[in-house]
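FORM 7B: Structural annotation worksheet

SECTION A. Query
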Amino acid sequence: MSKKLFSDFDSVSAKAWKQQIQADLKGVDYNSTLIWNTPEDINVKPFYHADDFNGEPFPEIPSNSWSICQSIFVFDVEKSNAKAINAIERGAESILFIIPNKEVSIEILLKNINATSTPLFFELQFLDADYAKQLSAITGVSLLTDSIGNLARSGNWFNNLKSDHEQLEKIVSKKNNTLSVDLSLYQNAGANIIQQLAYSLAHANEYLNILNSNLKSKITFKVSVGTNYFFEIAKLRALRLLWKTLASEYGVIEDCHIIAIPTKRNKTLYDYNTNMLRTTTECMSAILGGANTVCNLAYDAIYHKDNEFGERISRNQLLVLKHESYFNAVKNASDGAYYIESLTQQLSEKALALFKEIEAKGGFLKHLKEGLIQKKIKESAAKEQASFDNGDITLLGTNKHPNTEDRMKDDLELYPFLKMNARKTLLEPILERRLAETIEQNRLKTE
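SECTION B. Predicted structure
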């Protein structure tokens, strides 16, 4: 067809659209009726138009294919090996092993697993250069090494500041993927999206100050994805842009690897099957946002230690998205969507401004030690909790349409609530807590 489809139609400006909407409102105020404000202080408009960008090109987000990942906590090495092999046979394209200590045998864990065909990620809950060296020698293996993340989560370094820095420098001295930033902690603790992005950037900047030119490989970001669909798509896109901006200043690799997993913050104990609906849309946001690796969260992950059925269902959700919903057929499907582009731009700008503010006042570690990061996250979490408590945030089956006949007391294999253990720490840890915990604790008492 030589003639363009819409050549017979005149273009309509953003101003003309707004005038028509105002006419249709018949005197009702446009701003108070159709524009709403988010916790990130972003005004969401009823429509978006190319005029909003003043002819500026959209930010370039690199094309990414994504892999289905199975997360495995290694408690029993032989059982974890068998579980990984089974997951690969059933559709997992990569494996994330969570390693609690250096006594875990790499040889036994990886028996009959080909890391070159199935990428393997090792999240170490300790810091040991010799152990990391064994892993980094294996082609296809990436390490998630985050000593600052451990400090933020636990309140302590793995050993101490000097030792952790020395071990870290040894681990990342070679060209392999060995450095990571875990910003899932901030989301699960209740930080808003601007805070998540700014804190993760400041977190990464601390590593760049320590390592500088010694960082010769991609950094990995572990991201927790919430249920605010379009904002979460924009969050991942903004993360790439922010890292590229920061990395260019240091002359390190500007690309990054994003591992995405659904948030725990909105997951519920009662009416737990609704968790599958939540994780489905969260995984969709992760994919459309450009995550490289997607690890789903089983519907019963917050209260079951290990459930083959739950894990199979969570893996099948990703298989359906990839092979039946064709989420692998179109790369960067969100490109050019004015709403998402606008959100990406605004989130990036606001997060960068907060990052600069943190750096101007001493950097991330200084803020963490003084409790400023913890204070801001708690303030954000309290606002979100209040919105949930008064019904502005809805979790079906929990604070709306609960099934009063539902019983969970006898099914709890894991303690699903915030656990407080008295111990000495260098600083106040950042604590993860789900929105539904108080309601669920009260319901369990009455069963």
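SECTION C. Observations
DSSP finds 16 helices and ten strands in the chain. Residues 59 and 241 are 8 Å apart (CA to CA).

SECTION D. Sign-off
Analyst initials: ____
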